[in-house]
Amino acid sequence: DGGITQSPKYLFRKEGQNVTLSCEQNLNHDAMYWYRQDPGQGLRLIYYSQIVNDFQKGDIAEGYSVSREKKESFPLTVTSAQKNPTAFYLCASSIVTYQPQHFGDGTRLSIL
Amino acid sequence: AQSVAQPEDQVNVAEGNPLTVKCTYSVSGNPYLFWYVQYPNRGLQFLLKYITGDNLVKGSYGFEAEFNKSQTSFHLKKPSALVSDSALYFCAVVDSGGYQKVTFGIGTKLQVIP
After folding, report:
1. Residue A23's Cα: distance from chain center in Å?
2. What is the DSSP letter of A73?
3. From A47, which residue of chain B is nearest by alpha-carbon distance?
4. What is the mean pLDDT of residues B10-25?
5. How do the pLDDT tens digits run along chain A, 112 residues long?
6. Distance CA A108, CA A37 (A)
7. What does residue B88 show for φ and ψ, rounded to 5 degrees?
8. Which of A68, B28, B84, B107 is 20 to 30 A (C-alpha) from B41?
9. Which of B41, B44, B102 comes nearest A97 by C-beta?
10. Nearest CA to A24 among A46, A7, A45, A48?
11. pLDDT of residue B44
12. Yes or no, beta carbons of B105 and A42 under 8 Å apart
C-alpha cells in the first residue's frame, strides 16, 4: 500500500535538545511538505521541497531545518532555537505542488 | 499574498439535513482549490479539488463544492449529513501565478447531531 509514514507518533524534547521527525513516502511524489498544527490556527507551512536536494522556507521556518537527499525522505529537525515546539507536526507529499496532498498521521511533540 | 478564510469555527447540522462549510480565498492569479477532512489525531484526507473546468466539483463521500469566481468562494456542500461526517474540514488554495505554495484555512469543525 502506498502512503506516507511519520515516526515516531509521540516525541518528547528536553530543553536545549534538537529532535528529528521522520517522514518517508513510497508514492513516488516529487513534492513534500512539513506543517505545524496548533489548536485554532490551522496548518502552517514550515518547509516544502519540490525536488530532491532543493527546499524552500514556508511561513514559520525559524527554529526548524530540513534535508531532502532522497526523493522518498524529508526529515524535519526541531532545533533548540524553536522556543515553543509543542505541536502536532504533519508531513505531506504530492505529485506537484498544485495537486492534492497525501498526509501522514502526524507526530505529536511535547516538552519534558 | 494569497490567503484563505473559513469564517465559521464550527458548523452544527442535524443528521439528514444539507450541510455547507464556507471558504473564501484571495490570490493574484488563478486559484487551485482543495478541501480536506481531518479526524482526531490523524492526518488530513483529500476530499475534492478545483483546478479548471466545471464550477461544481464532486468529490469523495458524497461531498461537492461550488467554485464562484466573482465571490472568490469555494463552499463545501453535502445534500444529507451523516453523523460520521463530524470532523475538522480545511480549505486550501494554491496560486497558479505565484510560487505555487499552498495556504490552508484555519479549519471548520463540523458537528452532525443525531
Report:
1. 7
2. B
3. B101
4. 98
5. 679 999 999 999 888 899 999 999 999 999 999 999 998 888 999 999 999 999 999 999 999 999 999 999 999 999 998 889 999 999 999 998 888 999 999 999 998 8
6. 10
7. -100, 130
8. A68
9. B102
10. A7
11. 96
12. yes
CB contact under 8 A, A97 and B94: yes
CB contact under 8 A, B104 and A4: no
CA distances from A10 to A22, A34, A36, A60 (A): 12, 16, 14, 21
Instruction: Report the candidate in A91, A98, A52, A62 with the shortest Cα–Cα distance to residue B101.
Output: A98
Query: Which residues between 35 and 74 in chain A have a beta carbon less than 8 angstroms from any beta carbon of chain B?
Result: 35, 40-45, 48, 56, 58
pLDDT, residue A15, reads 83
Strand order in the sheet with A19-25: A4-7, A19-25, A76-78, A64-66
Name the residue facing A41 among B49, B99, B106 (closest C-beta).
B106
Burial class (CB in 10 A: 0-12, 13-18, 19+), B8: middle
Look at the block and give the residue holding cell 518517508.
Answer: A24
- What are the grid coordinates assigned to B51, written together? 483546478
> What residues of B are in contact with residue A42 (Cβ under 8 Å)?
90, 104-107
A43-71: burial string, b at 16+ Cβ within 10 Å, e else:
bbbbbbbbeeeebeebeebeebbbebeeb
Q: How far apart are CA A39 and CA B38, in angstroms?
A: 13
Residue B100, pLDDT > 80, answer no
